[in-house]
Amino acid sequence: MLYIILGIIVVAALYVVMIYNGLVKSRQMAEEAWSGIDVQLKRRADLIPNLIETVKGYAAHEKGTFEEVVRLRNQAQAVPAGDVEGRAVAEGMLSQALGKLFALAEAYPDLKANQNFLELQTSLETLESEIQMSRRYYNGAARDLNVKVESFPSNIVAGQFGFAKKPFFEITNEADRAVPSVKF
User: Fold this and answer.
1) For the chain, is the Cβ count within 10 Å smaller at the N or the C terminus?
2) Which residues span the membrane (predicted)?
3) What CA–CA distance (Å, rounded) separates 160 from 166?
4) Is residue 66 part of a domain?
């Protein structure tokens, strides 16, 4: 009888260890995924000053647009590293400002044909695509962790060891979600 009780205790302990290790793995995957987003956002922030300097030469009187992009870039960079929701809001506003910057370029045909501008625009578009992929990966990792944190019996282990849900990196501005209209 003693061996049965010891066997049950050992099996239960191993089960708790397996759950704990699964939670640790999920948390690490979510943190690694956030790091990927952070790297892409840093690359974008580094590219923006070059883009602005290129556009400035053609559109010197559009100073307000440039200042807004720079201000929002700096604001996004100032968000604390772990603040996913704050970073999502700041990056959404920066994306809107970049959209205005590219719309501004439409008014200057010479700028649109400038090789530096085209290269920077292509780099930024590629980066935006990589940010989207990183965001999807992070949200998937956060979802997996959140399911484990909320599901029984792993929620008991999660609660005992301080595992918490991760927020999703989402677009919070409804204007960014809207489908653009194309008119001919």
Assistant:
1) C
2) 6-24
3) 17
4) yes
User: What is the C-alpha separation between 73 and 50, in angstroms, rounded?
Assistant: 13
The per-residue pLDDT string of the chain (184 residues; one tens digit each, 9 = 90 and over) reads: 889 999 999 999 999 999 999 999 999 999 999 999 988 888 888 888 888 787 777 666 677 787 888 889 889 888 887 788 888 888 888 888 888 887 777 777 776 667 777 788 888 889 888 989 999 999 999 999 999 999 999 999 999 999 999 999 886 655 544 444 433 2
Cβ within 8 Å of residue 78, ≥6 positions away: none
Is position 180 within any domain? no
**Residue 40 lies inside a defined structural domain of this protein:** yes
**Residue at 23 is within a domain:** yes
**45: its two tokens:** 């922030």
Q: Contact 106/112 with Cβ under 8 angstroms?
A: yes
